Amino acid sequence: MTFKEQIQQGIPSILPPKQVYDPAINHAPKRKEILSAEEKKLALKNALRYFDPKHHAELIPEFSEELETYGRIYMYRLRPDYRMYARPIDEYPGKSLQAKAIMHMIQNNLDYAVAQHPHELITYGGNGAVFQNWAQYLLTMQYLSEMTDEQTLTMYSGHPMGLFPSHKEAPRVVVTNGMVIPNYSKPDDWEKMNALGVSQYGQMTAGSYMYIGPQGIVHGTTITVLNGFRKIKQNPEGSLFVTSGLGGMSGAQPKAGNIAGCITVCAEVNPKITKIRHEQGWINEVVTSTDELVARVALAKANKETVSIAYLGNVVDVWERFDQENIKIDLGSDQTSLHNPWAGGYYPVGISFEEANDLMANNPELFKEKVQETLRRHADAINKHTAKGTYFFDYGNAFLLEASRAGADVMAENNIDFKYPSYVQDIMGPMCFDYGFGPFRWVCTSGKPEDLLKTDAIACEVLEKMAETAPNEIQQQMQDNIKWIKGAQENKLVVGSQARILYADAEGRIKIAEAFNQAIAKGEIGAVVLGRDHHDVSGTDSPYRETSNIYDGSRFTADMAIHNVIGDSFRGATWVSIHNGGGVGWGEVINGGFGMVLDGSTEASKRLASMLFWDVNNGISRRSWARNDGAVFAIKRAMEVEPLLKVTLPNLVDESLL
Q1: CA gap 526, 447 in Å, rounded
Q2: Is 368 helix (H, G, I), strand (E, B) or coil?
Q3: Domain housing 90
């Protein structure tokens, strides 16, 4: 069968042969056993819903074995034998250009060069899934190949509920992930529902088909590192940044450190992902002993090198050894997947990677004890360095939250706040999000590098023209963005699809998108998908990350994220998604995203102007109501530009009256 025929057939009527488990692939760890005997029967019944009853007798023992062996039913037998990558859009079957673009994005999320655990359909973060099983993937791709522009596909945590009649201006796909009743949002609730096959953790851009590889976070990380050094009034040259994690998102840190111009040490316990990041050029060097690391960092400091060094081992060993050797760490953070601490997101110190994985599956309580013991050691070592002048920030991965739950010394004197700020509190919130700057991104669906090159040039031209009249309050952000886009090609950021990320405000996003749409209309480039990370101005309510610099008591509310996705859906988004749990853990955050296809039409022009304006200014208005100075400035400026915008502004109280 051709590729198109395989897509169109969906779940095959004749079962393909069982697949051989490939140990060379970076697989998800075994999930802990959490289902009772009756619940295991229910999980099997749920999985078999996708198959004709004539296949049930053959599949029951196989799916039962998967559940026992891996803790999940992935349906490995159905994994396609074609190469998984973002093909040029015209290679997909279908009646809708928009649907073909979504297929392009889904396959990119599962590309072996992009996905963390591709055979388990997990893109990043240890559990950030595109689908729960391969039947869902096959059925979704089939629906997309059949749909017209007057239908909408609804996705329930990876399950394609079906195609429903709608209209051309409606979203083609509406996605929800992990949207459970609040009282059932504990980590073990997720483990059980996911094992039953009824809910999934979509992370942020995994389950919304908008992941573009580590580049998706490189720009934000570069800005964070640059502004971190600006905050401590220190030149990055010859300065040391220490962190950990080389996974799907955290793997961007070494590249960002190189762009910022500092020395980066990034620890990672997984040898496979370390090897992948080194081969991809995202890290310069790999060392395997702290002796070697100490000597290498001393040399880099002496020569004021710009270099990224991966330490294959536990980051706690790095912090403790650098303290013993009195090596000055200038910036420190952590980007392990601590939203997922008991299932592979963070590893205990003192035991091997393989031993830890075995402990995780077979003795989860002891594994949890060792993780919490490691968190306490980790925090103690950080405290010793900050006493010597290190600037440490929480990277929004729930490090301080989980460390506090482990009893680590991370609380402030009031025993309410954390001792260290979130990077959003200190850096990204006041410097970027309050002014509307966030991770706008685009994908050239032609798959042609030359199209991406053209879009980079278009974006740069738009930004340079905007910078000529931009107010002083946002000149630094504008210049950082221009520098970024000019260096995008030479920094070799593309992994998977021909994609780019750029921190832009509403004005920049709209003007860049309109310029793209005009170029498409002229035939200069092919169709473009617009999107953003959920980690943005408006899309996410996350009290320990995206909205951690909201101080009016509303940071635990999620009105903004819900309004954001509803507003996007009727203003022209091609697909929308709303998730529970991205980035910092299930039950800790609600986050929404979108995708929009530009095809060069006047209709696309109208949609982009309407939706992008709302998508950003919804968040700025909430931030301004929380009395954030930058956001008040930004929303007043937006109201001057758009007379139909009228936002409720806060009145400030004289503190002495209180």
Answers
A1: 9
A2: helix
A3: 3-196
> Are 240 and 385 in a shared domain?
yes
Q: Which residues of 337-361 are buried (b: 16+ CB within 10 A; e: fewer)?
A: bbbbbbbbbbbbbebebeebbebbb
| Residues 6+ positions from 380 with CB-CB distance below 8 Å | 408, 409
Q: Say if 424 falls within a structural domain.
A: no
Write the CB contacts of 152 (distance below 8 Å, at least 6 apart in sequence): 163, 164, 166, 170, 171, 172, 173, 174
Kindly report the CATH number assigned to the domain that includes residue 344.
3.40.50.10730
387 and 477 within one domain: no
Q: What is the pLDDT of residues 393-425, one digit of tens each?
A: 988 788 999 999 999 999 999 988 899 988 888
Both tokens of 147, joined, read 């749909």
> In the beta sheet, which residues pair with residue 264?
241, 308
3-class DSSP state for residue 618?
A: helix
Report the sign of the C-alpha dihedral through residues 367, 369, 372, 376, in that order.
negative
DSSP single-letter state for residue 419: S
Residues 6+ apart with CB under 8 A from 32: 71, 191, 342, 343, 360, 361, 364
The rounded distance, in Å, linking the Cα atoms of 316 and 403 is 13
Does residue 423 fall inside a structural domain? no
Helix (H) or strand (E) holding 602: helix 602-625
Same domain, 219 and 182: no
421 located within any domain: no
**Number of helices (H) and strands (E), helices first, in the chain?**
22, 17
637-649 confidence digits (pLDDT tens): 999 999 999 999 9
Judge whether 91 and 151 are in contact, CB under 8 Å: no
Burial of 291 (0-12, 13-18, 19+ CB in 10 A): exposed
The enclosing domain of 49 has a CATH number of 3.40.1770.10
User: Pairing between strand 528-532 and 438-444?
Assistant: antiparallel
Q: Are residues 451 and 315 in the same domain?
A: no
Predicted confidence (pLDDT) per residue in 88-124, tens digit: 999 999 999 999 999 999 999 999 999 999 999 999 9
3-class DSSP assignment, residue 196: helix
Binding site as annotated, residues for NAD(+)? 125-126, 203, 268, 395, 583
Whether residue 275 lies inside any domain: the answer is yes
Cα–Cα nearest to 143, from 134, 156, 152: 152
pLDDT category at 248 given cuts 50, 70, 90 is low
Under 8 Å between Cβ of 199 and 234: no
Residues 181, 300, single domain; the answer is: no
**∠ Cα 145 147 150 (to 5°):** 155
- Whether 162 and 218 map to the same domain: the answer is no
**What are the pLDDT digits (tens) for 518-557?**
999 999 999 999 999 999 999 999 998 899 899 999 999 9
Q: What integer is the mean pLDDT of 568-588?
A: 93
- Kindly write down the DSSP assignment for every residue of 641-657, as one continuous string: H-TT---PPPPPPPGGG
Give the residue from 196, 226, 256 where a domain finishes.
196
Q: What is the C-alpha to C-alpha distance for residues 591 and 545, in angstroms, rounded to an integer?
A: 11
What pLDDT is stored for residue 371 in this prediction?
97
Please state the domain count of the chain.
3
E strands, 68-143, where? 122-124, 128-129
Are 504 and 643 part of one and the same domain? Answer: yes
- Detail the residues annotated as belonging to a binding site: 125-126, 203, 268, 395, 583
Tell me if 534 sits within 8 A of 212, measured CB to CB.
Answer: no
Looking at the structure, tell me whether residues 266 and 374 fall in a common domain: yes
